[in-house]
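Q: I'm teaching a short session on how sequence maps to structure, and I want students to see two examples side by side rather than one. Could you give me a first protein with its sequence written out and its structure tokens following it? Keep the formatting plain so it prints cleanly on a handout.
A: Of course. Example one:
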Amino acid sequence: MLTRWVAVGVLLTMSCAVMAQLGDEDTTTNVLFRYTNDKGNLVVEQSIPPAAAAGGYEIITEQGRVLKKVPKALQGEDAVKYAERLRREAQLAEWDAKLKRRYSSIKDIEAAKKRALSELSGNLGILRSNLSGVVSRLEEQQRLAGVKERNAQKIPQTVLDNIASLESERVEVIRQIATRENELAQRAKTFDRDIERFRVILGETPAP
């Protein structure tokens, strides 16, 4: 039992380290609108209604840093389209700035991608190894229960408890594996997007 919890602790420690690295390397930026609604309340959202777009607003980062202050301008739907274009331009500018601060070449991004995906793959390897161990212990407990049943004997409560506990653990580890596999795929896509955007920055490909 002690070995099991030590293994879980090691896994959680590694998982936290990986997630911290992912957060640090995520170069995408969520750019938001900040405006005053018709009730006089300050609102921060990813989209902006026509009245607010016409009445003036700020484009900010998630941390509250103002990227652009837009005064009263166009009316109706045109104002919304204009605001969204400004938001997109600010988002791209923030993305470009982060990429240029972090990397000096495409090779730098590819190396970072390799490191990050290697970390996640290692984490997945630990989870799969844990799953194999859980399944082996579960099968052993099920075998013991089967022997008792064939001999028309009562299955010990400890065996039944072990089977229930191991089955729950198996389901949880499978869930964690699926989560990590999704993280691995999404992280690869993020790096690929960064590479394509850096090509635009370098002038190798035209802006979309």
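Q: Perfect. Now a second example for contrast.
A: Example two:
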Amino acid sequence: MKIRSLLLCIFLLPALLFAQASAESAMLDSDYYTATDANNRTLKLAEKPSSILIAGKAGNMPANALFLFEEVAEMDLTLPKTDQGLGDFFSFIRPELNQKPRISQTASVEEIASKNSDLVLMKATHFESIARKLDALGIPNYTMNLESYEDWKTELRQLGKLLKNTSRAEALIGLYEERVQYITDKVKTLKPQEKINVLLLQAERSDATFAYKIAPDGWMQTWMVETAGAHAVWKGANKAANGWSTVSFEQIAAWDADLIVLVSYKDASEQYQKAVMNSEVWANLDAVKTGQIKASPYDMMNYIQPVASWILGLQWLAKQAYPTLFADLDMEAAVRTFYQEFYHIADEAKLEVLLDLYRTSIASNSK
């Protein structure tokens, strides 16, 4: 039976490869630029989009994906505010974007339409509020989800089709897969008793009050911890309808994780780490006693979120969880090569700025 299955695969493989090559050739030869978006709509453009507007909140996510393609260098772009409080990555690599006013994240459909862009790009969550209304006006628009590893692979392929640059899309997916496999190959050697318990908390501050939240089970942050080979101790505890859920200190103490990672998407993570380490309330937690309260890494965006640099967050998490297993993982080299390979940044001065920001973000972890 096994021999028969193997022979079947051998005979079918050339046919599958031929079909894939034929589909690729048909796409490249077509007069249209066509792709299917996250809401399962097929967009068909007569010309390659040269002016793109990114609309709505969380615009940094589709912008991250778009900027991975070389075509973006020649595009006329209109961006919403994409600074999460740590700096604006897109104007950093394309300074001329500072000369063009940003559109509000809450801009009306009428304002978006008035920009006369070839294409409006947005998060899939804006389908009802923006995309459907733009459809009614006959304005080409395209949605992206980008909330998981599978989303990133699927949607990079579709974006590659839309730009007729599928070779770049496949190269990007290959780069992600190589880094992910490096981690999964190592952590699969761990015995069950060797896996540590990790608690990832989003930290927020309002005046003198600190709040801590856990991610939903299906979100990328949870997947990252598990892919790094650890137990996500909060899994199953988020009862919010959608999004992060606030947890009490009593619950945090009950989990008593081996490693606690503090993430902030609005400001520097290390201030929350300092608050925890200096708190008498937290003092009896094992992670505090062993110095395993870690500020999450970032440069102009935090790595522990579903933007393109999530792969750096995954690599960092794996090294924090199992430093001996990942002793050969040089995070500074990983950051440098990420920006060289994914964003084609060759300017040493720019690379050094990003590396300095990364070094600063995790400097308190070694104190």
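Q: What should students look for in example two?
A: Point them to this: The chain has 14 helices and twelve strands. Also worth mentioning: Residues 19-23 have pLDDT under 50 and may be disordered.
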